[in-house]
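=== RUN LOG ===
request id: a7f3
mode: sequence -> structure
chains: 1
length: 603
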Amino acid sequence: MNNYILGLHVSHNSSACLFKGGSLLFAVQEERLTRVKQHEGFPHKAVEFVLNKPGIKPGDISAIAIAGVHQHMENPIHVYLKDATDPKPASSFFGRASASIKGRLNLSILDSAIYSKGQYQKYIHNELETLGFNLNASPLSYYDHHLCHATSAFYPSGYDHALIITQDGRGDFLSGSVWEGKGSELNLSTSQSSDSSIAQLYAGVTMYLGFTPLKHEGKITGLAAYGKDSELNSKIQNLFEVSDNGQIIRKNDLPELVELESLLDGRERKIINASPDEYRAFVQFGYLFQRWLKRHTDGMTREDVAYAIQDTTEKLIVQSVNNLLAHLQIKDAINICLAGGLFANVKVNQRIRECNPLVANVFVQPAMGDEGLAIGAALMEMQKNQVKCEPFTNMYFGNEYSDDEIHEELSNWADNFTYQKYDEVESEIAKHIYEGKVVGRFNGAMEFGPRALGNRSIIIHPTNKDMNDIVNKRLKRTEFMPFAPSVIDYRCKDYFKNYDEKHLTADWMTVTYDVYDEKVESIAAVVHVDNTARPQVVKSESNPSYYKILDEFNKLSGIGCFVNTSFNMHEEPIIATPYDAMRAFEQGSVDCLAIGNYIVWPK
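=== RESULT ===
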């Protein structure tokens, strides 16, 4: 019997991954291949990629693991309605269902057609069979959402013993959980209901300030550093309490929320009532919190509102961790693993690392959002079969192209661009960065997760802080976070306070550090107004080519880091293919493109 395990996440930011034995071979988000940011629905192209790359057939898959037991209740209605525009709507149950209910939506149809577990599973089966799977030969299992987050963080961390904390908007009726991991065992300590979601609160502020929730929370994190303390901080915090065992609980019975509930309009009430019972309070609080914000933020700047939610989030999470450590009577230092969308918040992750001497180290799943659930589901299937996961050392699990394939694409652009191949392309790239060029880098396998880590990156000299505005304007981005630095490993302690080589999670740009005052000016483009930076520590064993560029740049400039921002245009996914790279280059994103061993310039 073969031992390939296919992991899937079928919803917001859908993804697929493939394990063989204990090794993750490939993982990719559907958005990168369809070019639809945060693609929702079945990851057709991602599944085809993770099978075609190693050249295996659906029949070679031992088992298929899907994240989410109650996904049929959680996918928003608009996902199914959108499926009605699919060129082949008959290929999916939801396409057929939405086509039939569009324009005559009512509760009975919702209950029977969308919130039916049997129908959802039938949809999954149909899509897999369309791709050539025989589910008798490749059995299918569903695993709990927050358990998948927990396994995705613990098993790849390499820790033998850790506390695992998950926090996100919602999933399988929960918004958070705490587990204790020992060896191969995971034991649930506490869970947090969906209506106590801190991530929902953060998303609510994101929407209130005019940004898109589930996309732009990072803008709020950056904006918060420009704000100041106000009464709003304590008012938001007063909406919650933290129990002795670390559980975060929203106070549902506050008189003001009861009063605001009476102000809900008919449309809002209809949507609330159409929601599954388990999520009714979650949906209702979303509407109540928007009204609550309007009442309490009159005359405030958006920076101060952003500061209030960031400060409150940090304090609630820190209090939760401290209470948890006391409740479990932890006496010796212990590692903590983090997963779930809330832990895309790099400042929260720093606060957890620093909050208590008992926190030995922190590991953040690099694909901490829902895309990482595919990994968690596959790991659950592996644990069932007593297969141990190898610790993660990099996140390069996506598309990769040879120089011949790259040259074939470049030849299609020869009328407008010139290109040259180099034996030592890294030295040339370092020279162009040193000279102040904005360089696009496309090389090797694409990263999995939200961060570009040198293979699909834009690279810039880190001294000029004005480059943030210049490059964001070129990319049509509205950003408040500074660019992040890629830092060569032997220089990290020169720049970042309290950095330690054991901080593996810093390899993936998932945590911030305070920057030494005397170093701020030399790397101004990657230091935020609060003197923090979120580094990607680069090691030769994880990315030899990128390491060499940094090493050469350090020799030229005496600076051990440079700017690394994702290579994509505004509101588009990170580039995936040579065509994507050339298209972005054509739109003026970078001065030159270093793609494989080629460097490309406009004619």
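=== NOTES ===
The two ends are 55 Å apart (CA to CA).
The first helix runs from residue 30 to 34.
=== END ===
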